[in-house]
Amino acid sequence: MKILLAITTFNEINITEKCIEKIQHLKNIYPILIDDFSNRDNLKLLSMKFKIPIIGKVKHYGLTHSWNLAYKYFIENDYDFLYISNNDVLIPEQTINLLSESLINSDCYVVVPCSTVKGAGIGKCGIAQGIKNLKPVSDIDVNKPENYQEVQNLLIKYQLFKNVKENFFNGFFFGFRKNISKFELENNNLFNPKLINLTNEIDLYTRIKKTDSKKILYVKTAFIFHYKGYTLDINSRRDNLNLVRKKYL
Questions:
Q1: Are the beta carbons of 174 and 201 closer than 8 angstroms?
Q2: How far apart are CA 138 and CA 158, in angstroms?
Q3: What would you report as the CA-atom Rg of the chain, rounded to the nearest whole angstrom?
Q4: pTM for this model (two decimals)
Q5: How far apart are CA 147 and CA 187, in angstroms?
Q6: At 218, which helix (H) or strand (E)?
Q7: What are the DSSP E strand ranges found in the chain?
Q8: Which domains does the chain have, with CATH numbers?
């Protein structure tokens, strides 16, 4: 399998470095950075240090633009899978291959992992995706980032939770294959360019749901640690949440 991992960035170089540092050991996975404003020497140095290419922009166009750049790069370079990830995550060793194998063996279009309750977010996505603890098999604290690999190991070993299919997902980390192309919009965009930073995943899974019900696969043995809250400042979140309310609530 040829797997592209697109890590989107805009700020917080330190958290981006933590993410990249932890994926150096992953095999058959090709990471790229997609930065929403690449005229920054510290990010270029980070790219050189870890030998990861950057797809950059001359000005800030927003997260959805980055996602569409990742999608077009995935199609043009003939990868088998694309995983789109925030920069504020820690990815365990087995997770991406586990997600890929699960998606191959399903009829779903999108695959997502579990995370902590905080990392999974609020609402129905958080309920479906969040893990509070690993009892009764372990007292390990899933909310501590240093435990991220051990949490993944225990989920695989004990198979505590069953995979489920839903109509929704949280966009901090998700993946798909080329059959997602049936949901393309104009100009070969997969994501709606009018949605600058938030609701981009809502728009996609709403389109999927209109065609096929419950085609989002939650792999309950796969784990990603999500720090959460490093991607947008509070003003950007407020502006984008207002757009959510107008369109979806």
A1: yes
A2: 10
A3: 17
A4: 0.91
A5: 42
A6: strand 216-223
A7: 3-9, 29-35, 54-55, 81-85, 89-90, 110-116, 130-131, 164-166, 173-176, 216-223, 225-226
A8: 3-248 (3.90.550.10)
Contact 8, 226 (CB under 8 A): no
Residue found under tokens 């049936």: 182
**Which 3 state secondary structure label does DSSP give 69?**
helix
Phi-psi region of 188 (alpha: psi -120 to 50; beta: other; left: phi over 0): left
Per-residue tokens: 146:
């240093």
Rounded CA separation 42/197 (Å): 23
Tokens of 78: 């003939």
Determine the Cα–Cα distance for residues 213 and 211; give it in Å rounded to an integer: 7
Residue 43 has a pLDDT of 84
Residue 244, pLDDT score: 41
Classify the C-alpha dihedral 144-149-150-151 as positive or negative: positive
Listed residue (131, 188, 185) closest to 154, CA to CA: 131
Name 233's Cβ contacts closer than 8 Å, sequence gap at least 6.
11
d(CA 114, CA 133): 12
Predicted pLDDT at 198: 87
Q: Which mean pLDDT values do the consecutive 10-residue runs of the chain (249 residues) have?
A: 93 88 91 82 87 88 96 97 97 97 97 96 90 95 97 96 96 97 97 94 97 96 89 48 42
Structural contact between residues 128 and 114, judged by C-beta atoms closer than 8 angstroms: no
Supply the pLDDT for residue 230: 56
